[in-house]
Design brief:
single chain; alpha/beta; ten-stranded mixed sheet; 15 helices; globular
């Protein structure tokens, strides 16, 4: 209980005469945060033998995840990369395709599932990023670097917010990542074909890591020496001496060891902040997870190689498909990650399990044939919840389900209130966790006070607003907190706690499965992912003849301890294959726990 009372205070940058100060309508100061507990849910692999380190990814609101991390990681993160919302005014969807083996797929075997929305009011977006960048600055070490990926929609605002959070003197660069035209429609302006990546340091420390990244040699140089490059794209001094003694004779500073490299095809001029050689991901790329807005591994690899060394701690709190974590694992960096969308956590988990398997198999083979020291890889990782109930897969789906289930008349996005119910203004608080007084800040700062003053003047004893707060658990004094903050007005406030007041309300149909032991075999006879099947039933001529066509992965813990799942079986087939469905039970098996994840990234966990 002690941890739950922790509060972290933030030092504020002093206002300097003559320097601009950031303001926007509804700006709220962010001077402290409280500690939020985390629950360990799953463990994959083992901690590092020497350091005891194990990577961590978190499912939850990244503001609360970072508040949790402050206790142990304040000032300890070496590199941060985030790809936050761009305010692109779009909804991002993932195509869900039923696995069909040996048969042609039709339009009826796939549909699009909304993953997250990127539609904001301007002030709401600025406050959202202001608070998160404030926490990121506290987590970043004094010798660390942060990269913030954005585009033309909000780069100008984010530059100012980062100046405020990190200090304008700590601005390092604005990288322009250009990518080729991938078939967008013709428009009456120059097409937007680049993103911006803002780069800041956290201090003037000489210990800040920056490794120079070089471009390939110019095409003219490559063409001139093409006959002399070896299979690795290099020319040694000895090779040059043997093949072109005239050029060799003119060289200065020739080393004693002529086997050293004279020319490397990948060691040209230092790379500038104009990146044109990395392609955006397209359908069909091997690394594609089909998660919307996924970034290419080559982009993260360049950032990590430039601003971190092996063993460094890397953090991404807008994890998405897990590209940052995947590249960190491959390059021997430790990592932390977070996302509010459970689909992102499931996608990342599956991706990391596959990468860890490949790394462990490769290292095992190398140990038999290669005595050279390899970069240490950290392949074990844990999955946590932060202040979450395992209830909804993603917050977009959650709000829509609540609106439908309670028959709320919805308002347009961007309105302070989410809708109206029986004459009352309805605000749906963040789902998957209890609502706190801190969550009331948005309501308090955006209320129509001029309208309230008018109503108060006309009828001093009548409520100026009739409000229903919808939540999933709440602090005991949530209502009192709102009334106290607005004590100058009469308010009619009602708290509607779904978990307490609407226990019988069915917001989500749970999956079902028939799993049995048959001798020394664990057999999954049937699996019924109810939500997925309901969505598929809306498709014309939908038909599935094997439950495995609806399954993304199966994890099995043969000795479940009742708290943390530690899968020994990780059945993650490729896009064209199906899970096995039948598994050998080891002799030492105890309590068996099975986790089946469907194509929507919703999971059923049960003991056998």
């Amino acid at each position: 209980m002690e941890n739950e009372q922790l509060t972290f205070e933030f030092e504020q940058r002093p206002t300097i005469k003559g320097f601009p100060e950031l303001r926007w309508t509804g700006k709220r100061p962010y001077t402290s945060t409280q500690y939020y507990p985390a629950q360990l849910r799953e463990t994959y692999g083992e901690p590092d033998d020497e350091t005891g380190w194990i990577n961590k990814i978190f499912w939850g609101d990244n503001l609360q995840v970072m508040s949790h991390l402050l206790k142990n990681y304040r000032g300890k993160v070496d590199l941060i990369y985030i790809d936050p919302p761009f305010d692109s005014k779009a909804d991002y969807k993932k195509k869900i395709e039923v696995k069909g083996i040996g048969k042609a797929e039709t339009d009826s075997s796939s549909f699009e599932e909304k993953q997250y929305g990127d539609i904001w009011t301007n002030d709401e977006y600025l406050q959202f990023m202001f608070e998160r960048l404030t926490l990121l600055q506290r987590l970043l070490s004094y010798k660390g670097t942060i990269y913030v990926h954005c585009d033309y929609h909000k780069v100008h605002y984010l530059r100012m917010i980062m100046d405020d959070a990190f200090g304008p003197e700590n601005f390092l660069d604005e990288i322009v990542w250009c990518y080729e035209d991938i078939g967008s429609r013709a428009v009456k302006y120059f097409k937007h074909k680049h993103d911006s990546i803002l780069v800041y340091k956290n201090s003037n420390s000489d210990e800040r890591v920056f490794n120079i990244i070089r471009k390939r040699l110019s095409e003219s140089t490559i063409k001139r020496y093409k006959p002399y490059f070896d299979e690795n794209g290099k020319i040694s001094y000895q090779s040059l001496k043997d093949s072109n003694p005239g050029v060799f004779a003119k060289l200065k500073g020739i080393p004693d060891d002529l086997s050293e490299t004279w020319l490397d095809i990948n060691n040209g001029a230092p790379l500038s902040d104009w990146w044109v050689d990395i392609s955006a991901l397209k359908n069909g790329f091997a690394e594609s997870t089909a998660y919307p807005t996924q970034k290419p591994e080559a982009l993260l690899e360049r950032i990590m190689l430039a601003s971190s060394n092996p063993g460094a701690l890397v953090f991404d709190c807008f994890m998405g498909s897990g590209t940052t974590q995947a590249v960190a694992m491959k390059l021997g960096r430790r990592f932390l990650g977070a996302d509010i969308n459970l689909g992102a956590v499931q996608t990342t988990t599956k991706r990391l399990v596959s990468i860890a398997k490949e790394i462990n198999e490769t290292e095992s083979q190398q140990s038999l044939t290669d005595d050279t020291e390899q970069v240490k890889k950290y392949t074990g990782f844990e999955v946590y919840n932060v202040n979450n109930y395992d209830f909804f897969r993603n917050p977009i789906e959650a709000k829509n389900l609540i609106i439908d289930a309670l028959e709320i008349q919805p308002f347009n996005q961007g309105n302070l209130w989410d809708g109206e119910l029986n004459g009352r203004m309805v605000k749906i608080m963040p789902v998957n966790r209890i609502a706190t007084k801190a969550d009331l800040a948005e309501i308090i700062h955006n209320m129509p006070y001029k309208e309230y003053d008018r109503k108060k003047a006309e009828n001093p004893k009548e409520p100026v607003e009739v409000i229903t707060i919808v939540c999933m658990g709440h602090e005991p004094d949530l209502k009192a907190g709102l009334v106290q903050e607005l004590s100058q007005y009469v308010l009619d406030v009602e708290i509607l706690d779904i978990l307490h007041d609407k226990k019988d309300l069915q917001l989500k149909r749970e999956a079902e499965a028939d799993i049995v032991r048959e001798g020394n075999k664990l057999v999954i006879r049937e699996f019924y992912p109810m939500n997925l099947m309901q969505k598929l039933s809306l498709q014309k001529d939908y038909y599935v003849d094997d439950w495995r066509q609806l399954v993304d992965s199966i994890m099995i813990d043969w000795n479940y301890d009742g708290v943390v799942m530690q899968p020994a079986v990780m059945d993650i087939p490729d896009k064209k294959s199906l899970v096995a469905g039948v598994y050998d039970i080891p002799d030492n098996a105890g309590i068996i726990r099975v986790k089946i994840t469907d194509l929507l990234s919703e999971s059923l966990e049960m003991e056998v």
